[in-house]
Structures are given as C-alpha cells and as structure tokens.
Write a structure and sequence with these properties.
Distance between the termini: 23 Å
Number of domains: 1
Largest sheet: 6 strands, antiparallel
Radius of gyration: 16 Å
Number of helices: 2
Structural class: alpha+beta
Mean pLDDT: 79
Helix content: 10-25%
Strand content: 25-35%
C-alpha cells in the first residue's frame, strides 16, 4: 500500500507562533479546508480535503491531505490536481503504471513534521 501526502513550500507564510519540540517536530498551526475543485470551504465534511500549514522550524511548508475516502483511480482530473496527485496519463503503459501505483494509495495523517537529520 502506498501512502501519499503532497508537501508544498510556499515561503513567507505567517501563522500562529510556534517552536519545534525536543525532537525537532513542528505541529500544524493552521488548516484550510478545500473541496475537489480546490476552493476553500468553511470546515471539514465528506469529500473535503485539507491544506495543513506547519510551524517552526518549517514555516512556509504545507501538506495537502486528501479526504479519508478519496480514491485516486475514480477521481476527476480536477480532484487529482486539487488534492496534490500527479496527472493521470490518458493511455498506454504510463496509464497502467499510474493506476497500479496510485490505485493502492490511501489516506495518511501527517499530524506533524519532524526532522530525521538526513538530507537527500
């Protein structure tokens, strides 16, 4: 099973002040709720995803979290884009690989962002 969360960097984001914990982990400081078209909605609900913004030391970093029941292989192209998934190829081997890869993806809750001390 493949778990997927899209991470974005959008420098300059301001949010609630925070500091990393003793393990270098940063908590979510702000959450924006989005529908399958990427539009902001007032709060959580069915088919609603999230954009989570993290505090220090990761200010400006966010993650897109698709709805819990999101199935990429059944999603529209717009929903894929809104929830941070790569575009689905239209045909051929690329489409088969995409479906095999993303058909197994499931929701994960990143909760916080931590440093592993490794840089790739």
């Amino acid at each position: 099973m493949l778990a997927f969360v899209a991470f974005l960097y959008s420098g300059g984001l301001s949010g609630a002040p925070s500091s990393p914990d003793a393990n270098g982990c940063a908590s979510v400081v702000t959450v924006k709720y989005i529908d399958g078209t990427g539009k902001s909605v007032p709060g959580p609900g069915p088919a609603i995803g999230q954009i989570r913004y993290y505090g220090a030391p990761y200010e400006g970093t966010s993650s897109i979290v698709a709805p819990v029941d999101f199935v990429p292989t059944l999603a529209t192209d717009g929903e894929l884009a809104s929830f941070g998934y790569p575009p689905r190829p239209r045909s051929g081997d690329g489409k088969a690989v995409w479906e095999k890869t993303w058909g197994r993806s499931r929701y994960i809750d990143p909760g916080e962002m931590c440093s592993t001390g490794r840089h790739n």
